[in-house]
Write a structure and sequence with these properties.
Blueprint: H1 3-10, E1 16-18, H2 19-23, H3 29-39, E2 43-46, E3 49-51, E4 54-56, E5 59-61, H4 65-73, E6 78-81, E7 101-104, E8 109-113, E9 116-122, H5 132-141, H6 150-162, H7 166-176, H8 179-193
Parallel strand pairs: 7-9
Antiparallel strand pairs: 1-3, 2-3, 4-5, 6-7, 8-9
Length: 194
């Protein structure tokens, strides 16, 4: 069995691979990658990142954002946040945003993956999942980046914070909050402790 055939058999539809991960199964990884891309067995989604397409009746399905980001980072410790999620807090944000934010421990900057731009932001701590409390802390951290007037959004956000579970909110601030978010939420958390 040839090295290319062996490599092809290891590919799973819908999976995203890093070049260095595929190199362990190939004697000439760059040549084999070129051949697999030319035959449609792989699609290049970014520098050093390849997708084994999953065929549907509508054509090839794109990789899930989570798989794409995890392969790009080489790490599963990240939090993928769509700024559209702020709208679910009911604090007056209504804009639709097209650039997901990826909080992680490895990369910072804007990167294009599979035709879509992601805003990677490094943080020392990254929550395992997105909760309403983490989302509110993130909104307060990004208040200046929102297209809405922060003077309208801030009072609503603080009012929403007063209705949240204070222990969970305090943990979100402690583990994920910026100095700005901590400062803004301090009166809310202090009044809960009193």
């Amino acid at each position: 069995m040839s090295a290319l055939t062996d490599l092809t058999k290891r590919l799973r539809p819908g999976q995203v691979y890093r070049r260095k991960d595929l190199a362990r199964w190939s004697t000439s990884v760059d040549r084999h990658l070129r051949q697999l891309v030319d035959t449609g067995r792989l699609e290049k989604v970014s520098g050093g990142l390849y997708l084994a397409p999953r065929k549907t009746r509508f054509g090839n399905a794109p990789a899930t954002e989570e798989r794409l980001v995890e392969s790009f980072l080489g790490d599963d410790r990240f939090l993928l946040v769509s700024p559209n999620a702020f709208n679910s807090l009911g604090v007056g944000t209504t804009q639709l945003h097209n650039e997901p934010v990826v909080y992680n421990r490895k990369r910072h900057g804007r990167y294009k993956l599979d035709g879509r731009t992601y805003d990677f932001r490094m943080r020392t701590a990254v929550p395992a999942q997105l909760s309403q409390e983490v989302l509110l802390v993130d909104l307060l951290h990004n208040l200046g980046r929102l297209p809405e007037d922060s003077r309208d959004v801030l009072p609503r956000a603080l009012n929403r914070a007063r209705k949240m579970d204070k222990k969970r909110l305090a943990r979100a601030v402690r583990e994920f909050g910026s100095v700005r978010a901590q400062r803004l939420l301090e009166p809310v958390l202090h009044s809960a402790a009193a």
